[in-house]
Design goal:
InterPro entries: CLU-central, CLU_dom, CLU_N, CLU_prot, GSKIP_dom, GSKIP_dom_sf, TPR-like_helical_dom_sf, TPR_rpt. It comes from Polysphondylium violaceum. The chain is an alpha+beta fold and about 1300 residues long. It is built from 41 helices and 25 strands. The longest helix has about 55 residues.
Length: about 1300
């Protein structure tokens, strides 16, 4: 447990010891871990040689797995690897191959087919072709990453460009576009250089050199930015013009964020950008199969009937040498090759030769596959249930029907079933002294566990569906046991009345969870000579089934039924074999369990170091097995009544308490020595007392130790309970109040509480705390989880009692009673019609009022909490729907449900009921240690060393689990953060994309960690200048946050702030302000109007208003921010001073703008006055001329008429001359006067910017400059 979960005393010695341990681990790993190197694989395809990055510990099988998921080689299944002409074994490690090293070449040569490999080849081709007609690239473990990704090239400014940007931030927009285009072109060139050095490329070994060269070029300043602005801008515009209308619509769909709107469940799934592609009409196994004996001698394996898209029908023979078209028809059997003699080693090559449409369709599918992320095509080890689904169209496929017939569960397996127990125990006995030995051991454990869980799910479905005969058919149905594929299945029911006083079947069901947790703890202890069983719990259709591997001889040998340790009859007789006791004592010491004496009802007192229910059995293989570990941890002293026998403490709490005691004891000893004046020695011989708890306290067995010892045991256990209620739970509440942790749903809340060692039965006590009453978010979160857990048990009981043909109606009816609103619009006649054909009594008796009464009783009994309102809050009903579906395996259609009606659900909207699985989930201890050490170094800002540790952890996880595992995603996420802090944004984006795809596959496409991954990826893309790509990711994160995060989810405000920052970068300032207002609304509701988060939002709003030239509103918002900073942090705090400086800058800018407007107005008035004067002068001059030319009073009549009518003009030239002559001198005079006036105005206004007399365009530019000029007042990009 990490120490941040409790209030532990600070101790410098512990930190020094931790540093020593980390350095020792680092030295050990550097010696034992190998460095990756490139090799080349010569393929039989037209792509030639492929470069692959490997480590010496990789096996040939690992390389095969990589090529199996590569688009160029995914259809080649039957081949072998040869080195220097010798075929290599699939399980050979590269370091064991003589002469093999960096830059070595493996030859990928075809090998003959057999019936199994040929059928696997056909299935692989059908699987790839199914990608063309499916919604997701991998239906069993889907990911939606590609649907929200609009990749871009990075635009990372250099140091010179940063300085230029700071000095000319508010210059003309065209100039900014030119700079951006320049950096984008440069980044595109660097990106292309990086892309030529992937681990799967063909060519020379220049990966490291090219990458270093690319990084240097990327960081090198560009001195030709101004020269290339115009060209880059034109290239950018040309690139935009290359988008087709469909591509433009796709881009808008992914990245366009419109006005703030309520998310809809019907928009859960995006539209598929790729049209459905079909390669063949039909491909089935031919009716001429199986192959006659005579044709087997010719190498025939089976026959295929294929109908091409062109309409022709062919019959294909699969032989040991490949595939060819024979002459058979549906009426005649002729296995001879066709006259065209068309043959190929692979089936897709054969079909490519005879069908142009197949070639075109398969090429399109492989192109689409190659454009997706590499991890999208890889399946997860254990599929994750999805609670919402698209409408599923059942396509007509005879091949699928044939496969379903072949997969009928047969209890009498035709082939030899796997001996799961022998595999598991053999692996447990493998050496584990070195890191590499542990990697091999852990990898085998993970593989066997995943295969076991897959087989257990199939068997559990058969057991619940009653497709399997029990091994004890004469016993009552509750006691039936089943055996399938060497896996033992049973129902956790109280068939022997052992749990009558503590809940009966409900307690037996809870004991299965405790047993699984106990097995996991003993596996972590890993004591030599102690063996546990492979175990999985499957909840399906209301039934809980336990699947376990078989103890050798337990079903056929009476000797193995004997108990050598513990009790078989609930404490009447108890045994304690000395050798068993010795081995169990080692495990108990690690689990903080004490050795104590118990007295059976019959016989003498014995010493045990586990609970008396734990059983020790010796199998026929001579191994010692530990069973029924229902109390591997002690009872919860806060629930000490007899009815709470299954209430045990979590192991995380015990580990935290032990560490708390150790640190407190050391701190106390140091304080005592300091008081006595003694020097604190570095290595003290004294050791803190070990924590040892009695696992049999508060049980039905009689304790044999004296009253004094029993009192000590009770005090020790009570101290743990006090520690839980007095420190751990208050610390959780404090973190919830301060929003240090923000669980948003039942999944994250459960993980948070379990990590801190808090059982879910404490939900009620936390919900009743004062903090929950003050913060509605906390109250709603805990309330929703309590009622969902109560509804889960009622749902399982209802489904168990219903008919198999009525499951869809039963589920819909239960959901209507649970989440619908009783309006009284449905009368009795309509209700009777709905239930007319329903036979299940439990469904008839289920009503909304009755269901909520049962929920209230269950919540009171389990959590000691009284429900006041018997309904789910309207704004939380979709969240509760998701939580219940994930808990019981329901899958519903993605549509908008109206929860204000009586019947929001119909039976047609219930898509599936999936099994919910719990299993041991083995993890790599070495990888986990390196991961935690890397995190610790990261927090200490030792980025280089942390990167080394995380890369080593990643290498181990890849070898143990493969890429698709939650621990691998965790490492990738931390590596992305390290790269981000090192300002290597491209690398951070690549790592975060890997983490995102893995998280979607292992946790779910709408899990809280998935939403976080999308948000982090958007931040990284924004830092790299990929604004459009960042908008796509953040848009999806915003949708999931609003859809599933609750009305006032604390993470909504941060998401809104991130969206507003991106919108501001895209110059959508009005929409950015809208999201800032939404963020402010949530912050004020959660934290109050005077919280620092609100001050930050006010500051961002002020900055945005300033960019919009609305300085009045900008000053108003910054004043609010300043007052909050001054109140909460004080006037001397740096943030308060920064806010004050920014406010002062805004005020000065506003004053200058007012003065400028006044001066401009005066100048316009003066210019108008000058214009009027000029017009008056011109009029006076014209009048003077006319007065000179006027005739005298004694002139003739003709002269007077001539003067009145004007001169006779033969053309326009004389008139033009007159106008030109009259206007030249006045215009020159006016211009000179205006210029002089401007000069005098400029010299007299000293505080006014130098550009106040320029054009309005540059004036507004200068205003923006003045607003953002102080570097201390500009908001940090990361804080946005």
């Amino acid at each position: 447990m990490s120490s941040d979960t409790v209030d532990m005393p600070s101790l410098e010695v512990v930190g020094e010891e931790q540093q020593v341990v980390i350095q020792q681990e680092q030295q050990e790993e550097q010696q034992e871990e190998s460095i990756a190197f490139p090799i080349f694989v010569k393929t039989p395809t037209e792509i030639g040689t492929i470069q692959v990055q490997v480590t010496p510990n990789d096996t040939i099988l690992d390389i095969q797995s990589f090529l199996y998921e590569t688009a160029e080689t995914c259809l080649y299944t039957s081949y072998g690897f040869f080195f220097n002409g010798v075929r290599l074994n699939e399980y050979s490690e590269l370091e064991s191959i003589e002469g093999f090293g960096p830059n070595s070449t493996l030859d990928m040569n075809p090998v003959d087919y057999n019936e199994r490999s040929a059928k696997l080849h056909v299935e692989r081709l059908k699987e790839v072709m199914a990608h063309g007609v499916g919604d997701f690239p991998n239906e069993k473990s889907p990911t939606m990453f590609s649907y929200f990704s609009y990749p871009e090239k990075s635009v990372i400014p250099t140091e010179d460009e940063d300085n230029t940007t700071n000095n000319t931030e508010s210059t003309d927009s065209a100039q900014n576009e030119g700079t951006t285009a320049t950096t984008e072109a440069k980044a595109e060139e660097n990106k292309e250089q990086k892309e030529t050095t992937t681990t799967t490329q063909s060519g020379e070994n220049k990966e490291e050199a090219d990458k270093k060269k690319s990084n240097k070029q990327q960081k090198k300043p560009n001195n030709n930015t101004k020269q290339n602005k115009g060209n880059n801008k034109k290239e950018k515009e040309e690139d935009k013009e290359k988008l087709t209308p469909a591509q433009k619509a796709r881009k808008e769909e992914i990245t366009e964020i419109k006005a703030f709107e309520k998310p809809l469940l019907s928009n859960y799934f995006p539209s598929n950008p790729s049209p459905q592609v079909q390669c063949v009409r039909q491909m089935i196994y031919s009716g001429w199969s199986p192959v006659p004996a005579s044709r087997q001698l010719h190498g025939d394996l089976f026959y295929l009937d294929i109908t091409l898209l062109e309409g022709s029908h062919i019959c294909v023979t699969a032989s040991v040498n490949g595939f060819f078209i024979n002459q058979s028809t549906q009426a005649n059997f002729n296995p001879a090759a066709s006259n065209k003699a068309t043959t190929a080693f692979t089936l897709h090559e054969l079909l490519t030769q005879v069908s142009r449409q197949f070639r075109r369709g398969l090429g399109q599918i492989l192109t689409n596959v190659s454009q997706r992320h590499a991890f999208e095509m890889q399946p997860s080890v254990i599929p994750v249930n999805s609670w919402v689904s698209r409408p599923k169209n059942n396509r007509f496929d005879l091949h699928k029907a044939t496969q379903s017939v072949l997969s009928i569960l047969d209890p009498d397996i035709r082939c030899q079933p796997r001996d799961w127990n022998e595999e598991l125990q053999t692996l447990r006995e493998l050496p584990k002294s070195t890191v590499q030995e542990r990697i091999i051991r852990d990898r085998a454990f993970a593989k066997v566990n995943s295969d076991f869980v897959e087989a257990a799910i199939r068997g559990a479905k058969a057991v619940v569906g009653k497709s399997m005969q029990p091994i004890n058919p004469m016993e009552p149905e509750r006691s039936h046991m089943f055996l399938y594929n060497n896996i033992f299945f049973s129902f956790p029911l109280d068939t022997r009345d052992l749990y009558t006083e503590c809940g009966g079947d409900a307690a037996a069901r809870a004991s299965a969870n405790n047993d699984l947790r106990g097995i996991h703890l003993f596996n972590l202890a890993d004591v030599e000579g102690l063996h546990t069983l492979a175990t999985a719990i499957i909840d399906y259709k209301g039934q809980r089934v336990i699947a376990q591997s078989l103890v050798p001889g337990i079903l056929s040998n009476e000797k193995t039924s004997n108990i050598y340790y513990g009790s078989m009859d609930n404490g009447k007789t108890i045994k304690a074999d000395p050798e068993f006791h010795e081995r169990l004592l080692k495990a108990s010491t690690l689990l903080h369990l004490s050795e104590q004496t118990v007295v059976p009802e019959e016989g003498e007192a014995v010493k045990l170091c586990t609970s008396f229910e734990t059983k020790g059995i010796i199998g026929t293989d001579g191994r010692r097995y530990v069973l029924d570990l229902v109390r591997a941890t002690p009872r919860d002293p806060n629930y000490a009544e007899l009815k709470d026998q299954m209430c045990v403490l979590r192991p995380e709490l015990i580990a935290t308490y032990a560490e708390y005691n150790r640190i407190s004891w050391i701190a106390k000893r140091q304080a005592e020595k300091k008081e006595k004046g003694e020097a604190a020695t570095e290595e003290s011989q004294e050791k803190p007392p070990a924590l040892a708890l009695n696992p049999n306290l508060y049980s039905t067995v009689k304790l044999g130790d004296g009253a004094e010892q029993q009192e000590k045991d009770i005090q020790a256990l009570t101290a743990v309970g006090t520690f839980l209620k007095g420190i751990i739970i208050p610390k959780l509440i404090e973190d919830l109040i301060l929003f240090n942790i923000t669980p948003v749903d039942g999944q994250t809340l459960t993980a948070t509480m379990h990590t801190r060692g808090i059982n879910m039965r404490y939900l009620g006590s936390i919900a009743k705390s004062e903090a929950a009453t003050k913060f509605p978010f906390i109250h709603d979160l805990f309330f929703n989880e309590m009622i969902t857990r109560a509804a889960k048990h009622i749902f399982n009981a209802t489904v168990r009692d219903s008919q198999p043909s009525e499951l869809a109606f039963t589920i819909a009816h239960f959901m209507n009673c649970f989440l619908g609103t009783e309006t009284g619009s449905i009368n009795k006649e309509e209700k009777s019609k709905r239930f007319k054909h329903i036979k299940s009594k439990a469904v008839h008796e289920l009503t909304q009022q009755g269901l909520w009464e049962q929920i209230a009783q269950s919540v009171k009994a389990k959590f000691d909490y009284d429900i006041i309102t018997h309904s789910v809050p309207m704004e939380s009903r979709l969240i509760v729907l998701r939580s219940l579906c994930l808990k019981v395996g329901i899958q519903v259609l993605a549509k908008d449900y109206d929860f204000t009606t009586d019947l929001p659900f119909t039976q047609d909207e219930i898509v599936d009921l999936q099994p919910v699985v719990k299993h041991l989930n083995p993890r790599s201890g070495d990888g986990l240690d390196l991961l935690e050490a890397g995190k610790s170094l990261f927090n200490q800002k030792k980025y280089d060393v942390a990167t080394e540790f995380l890369n080593e952890s990643l290498a181990i996880y890849h070898q143990v689990h493969g890429p698709i595992h939650s621990d691998t995603a965790n490492v990738y996420s931390n590596l992305a953060m390290l790269a981000f802090y090192n300002e290597d944004y491209d690398l951070a984006i690549d790592h975060e994309k890997n983490a995102l795809v893995i998280t979607e596959k292992t946790l779910g496409i709408d899990h809280h960690d998935t939403v976080h991954a999308y948000a982090n990826l958007a931040i990284f893309c924004r830092s790299a200048g990929r604004f459009t790509e960042a908008l796509g990711y953040l848009k999806h994160a915003l949708y999931l946050t609003d859809l599933l995060g609750g009305e006032y989810n604390p993470e909504r405000s941060s998401t809104y702030t991130a969206v507003s920052a991106l919108l501001e970068d895209s110059n959508k300032l009005a929409l950015s302000l809208e999201f800032l207002n939404q963020a402010l609304k949530h912050q004020e509701f959660l934290f109050g109007p005077s919280h620092l988060s609100s001050a930050n939002t006010y500051h961002l709003m002020s900055y945005t208003y300033a960019k919009m030239n609305d300085f009045k509103e900008s000053i108003e918002q910054e004043k609010k921010a300043y007052h909050i900073f001054e109140k909460e942090l004080g006037p001397e705090h740096q943030r308060t001073q920064d806010s004050g400086a920014f406010l002062s800058s805004l005020t000065q800018t506003a004053v200058q703008i007012v003065k400028f407007k006044q001066a401009r107005l005066q100048q316009m008035q003066f210019e108008q006055f000058q214009k009027e004067q000029q017009q008056a002068k011109r009029a006076a001059a014209a009048a003077a001329k006319l007065e000179k030319k006027a005739p005298s009073g004694d002139g003739s009549v003709n002269e007077i008429l001539s003067y009145i009518n004007g001169p006779k003009l033969s053309g326009s030239r004389p008139a033009v001359k007159v106008i030109s002559k009259n206007n030249v001198k006045p215009t020159t005079t006016t211009t000179t006067t205006t210029t002089a006036t401007k000069s005098s105005t400029k010299s007299s206004t000293t505080q006014k910017p130098t550009t106040t007399t320029t054009a309005p365009k540059s004036t507004s530019t200068k205003q923006s400059q003045t607003t953002s000029s102080p570097s201390s007042t500009k908001p940090n990009k990361k804080s946005k």
